[in-house]
Amino acid sequence: MINNTLGHIRNDLYILGHIECPIYLLDGREPLIFDAGLSCLGQIYVEAIRSVLGDRQPSALLLSHVHWDHCGSVSYFKKAFPGMKVAASRSAADILRRPNALALIKTLNENFTASMKSIPGVDPSILIDEPFSPFYVDKELVDHRSYDTPGNTKVEMLATPGHTQDHFSFWLPDHQILIAGEAAGVYYGPGIVSTEFASDYDAYLSSLQRLADLPVEVFCQGHYGYLLGGEEISSFFEQSIRTTTGFKARVLELLAEEAGSIERVALRIKTERYDIIPEPKQPEPAYLLNLRAQVNHLAAKAQ
Prior knowledge:
The protein is α/β, with parallel strands linked by helices. Helix content is 38%, strand content 17%.
């Protein structure tokens, strides 16, 4: 069962902001933030962080990846918390130096602001119109290394490419907590898992299997909530692996039926796998953007 209530999870871990694109806070002597969601939610995130930390400031922001909906409020955070360092992979830092990538992140954040205003339960007056602003990465995430701060729980950095080339997950072994972004897909409910490789199918499946081998009691995903309990999380990973391999097989089957048409295959996959997901779910334009990338990738691999 997906838990979608914002607030305290367990130990010193919190899920904050909006369930569409939440952020996670690990409290401690030097608090850590994981991901920075959407630009329009910047004020909501900051107020939620302050509701937990009071006058204390987060020491660092750890980014799973720099997709538009995971790094949108970084610059807003930096203004609110001037001493906070930004940590991301080397690949992420490279992406953030590309003008075309920055332009796309800005455009997608602007487009989604209008969508957020129509989501039930969202007060449009607390959304901000401040556009996405570029930012610098202060610290590099390195696979297998720990991000240690005085008095904090140990956080191990795990390179988990596949959803994107720059993707990292964060493993807190002392409490068996995994903050995985979209490296393992998105769980919507019983029987419904969205496979989320957008750059590399083989790397995604390898990353997924790597995470599945960890003993996890709290699984924090990049959208819509978190899972609790080793048995349920293990079942989720098994389902996510099956969904991923089944997705590939179905795409290849449809490519043969549709004479290689990426667009027709994408629309059929959308009908089969997206239209059945109950709300809340990823907005259709964003879903189709990633889906076309997935189909293109698998079509190229099959040639």
